[in-house]
């Protein structure tokens, strides 16, 4: 019999090109073998070349979507992606506190690869104070970790210090993604709730087809948690899934093509 608690929710924005945001999350959930529900907080007009416009969804519509799901589905994890503005961060924080879905993975999406800002400055403070303390896991890249920790990150020691700072701010586990630079070897740093830590080393893949990578990684971690993995295993499996997806797939569009499995 299918386990009916293999259900996970994403609270995020849409991407009309189907590459990032809710699209990436739902595809990842399905590929990992869990059921995905989606609460839409923003509608973006975008393609692989950039974000052309963003329309935020009113708070009451977001609250209603979350309530509808909470009243019916049996969720074992939730992830948040692009949240956009301070009202949305506050609305989502209120709902997460009310329903306590457990296993909350916070992907602190701030800027798209093409440079579009996906989180306002005011919202950053709200995310830090309202959402970080609720998160079982936060998955910043280096620029996001710098903003949240208030630290400059240049060395591996800086990465570790910033991760400890994010844990002090309330996130139980931290996965600090090192892939934002140009180095051929990528180092991601994981700091776990029990204080243990490990590095994940991988080789950079020479491709432009990385649209939705961060969303996919955090969605895969949420899915692996739902499937019963401990945090270390969930991180390792999610990272392996993203790496495999970056290495496969067809090019869609003329810019940063979306991750996909179609080749
Ligand atoms: N658009 C939406 C709705 C997103 O949620 C995200 C990432 O979380 C992006 C765009 C940016 O994706 P990327 O930086 O991988 O291009």
TrEMBL record:
What NCBIfam families does its record include? HMP-P_kinase
Q: Name one Pfam family in it.
A: Phos_pyr_kin
PANTHER family recorded for this chain? HYDROXYMETHYLPYRIMIDINE_PHOSPHOMETHYLPYRIMIDINE KINASE THI20-RELATED, PHOSPHOMETHYLPYRIMIDINE KINASE
Family recorded in the similarity comment: Belongs to the ThiD family.
Q: Which GO terms describe its molecular function?
A: hydroxymethylpyrimidine kinase activity; phosphomethylpyrimidine kinase activity
What would be the name of the gene that encodes this protein?
thiD
Name of the molecule in the record = Hydroxymethylpyrimidine/phosphomethylpyrimidine kinase
So, what pathway does this thing act in?
Answer: Cofactor biosynthesis; thiamine diphosphate biosynthesis; 4-amino-2-methyl-5-diphosphomethylpyrimidine from 5-amino-1-(5-phospho-D-ribosyl)imidazole: step 2/3; Cofactor biosynthesis; thiamine diphosphate biosynthesis; 4-amino-2-methyl-5-diphosphomethylpyrimidine from 5-amino-1-(5-phospho-D-ribosyl)imidazole: step 3/3
Give residue ranges for domain Pyridoxamine kinase/Phosphomethylpyrimidine kinase: 15-260
The UniProt record lists the EC number as 2.7.1.49, 2.7.4.7
Give the catalytic activity: 4-amino-5-hydroxymethyl-2-methylpyrimidine + ATP = 4-amino-2-methyl-5-(phosphooxymethyl)pyrimidine + ADP + H(+); 4-amino-2-methyl-5-(phosphooxymethyl)pyrimidine + ATP = 4-amino-2-methyl-5-(diphosphooxymethyl)pyrimidine + ADP
Respond yes or no to whether keyword Kinase is given for this record.
Answer: yes
User: Per UniProt, which keywords does this protein have?
Assistant: Kinase, Thiamine biosynthesis, Transferase
């Amino acid at each position: 019999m299918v386990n009916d608690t293999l259900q996970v929710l994403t609270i995020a924005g849409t991407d009309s090109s189907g590459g990032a945001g809710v699209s990436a999350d739902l595809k990842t959930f399905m590929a990992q073998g869990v059921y995905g529900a989606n609460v839409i907080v923003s509608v973006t007009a975008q393609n692989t070349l950039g974000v052309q416009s963003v329309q935020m969804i009113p708070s009451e519509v977001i609250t209603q979507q979350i309530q509808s799901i909470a009243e019916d589905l049996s969720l074992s994890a939730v992830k948040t992606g692009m949240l956009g503005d301070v009202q949305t961060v506050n609305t989502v924080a209120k709902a997460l506190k009310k329903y306590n879905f457990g296993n909350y993975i916070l992907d602190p999406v701030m800027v798209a690869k093409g440079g579009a800002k996906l989180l306002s400055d005011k919202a950053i403070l709200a995310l830090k104070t309202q959402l970080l303390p609720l998160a079982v896991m936060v998955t910043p890249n280096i620029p996001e970790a710098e903003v949240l920790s208030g630290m400059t990150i240049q060395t591996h020691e800086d990465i570790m210090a910033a991760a400890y700072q994010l844990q002090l701010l309330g996130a139980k586990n931290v996965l600090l993604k090192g892939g934002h630079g140009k180095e051929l070897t990528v180092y991601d740093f994981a700091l776990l709730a029990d204080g243990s830590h490990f590095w994940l080393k991988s080789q950079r893949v020479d491709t432009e087809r990385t649209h939705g990578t961060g969303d996919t990684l955090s969605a895969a971690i949420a899915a692996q948690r739902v499937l019963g993995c401990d945090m270390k295993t969930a991180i390792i499996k999610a990272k392996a899934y993203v790496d495999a997806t970056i290495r496969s797939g067809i090019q869609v569009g003329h810019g940063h093509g979306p991750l996909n499995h179609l080749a």
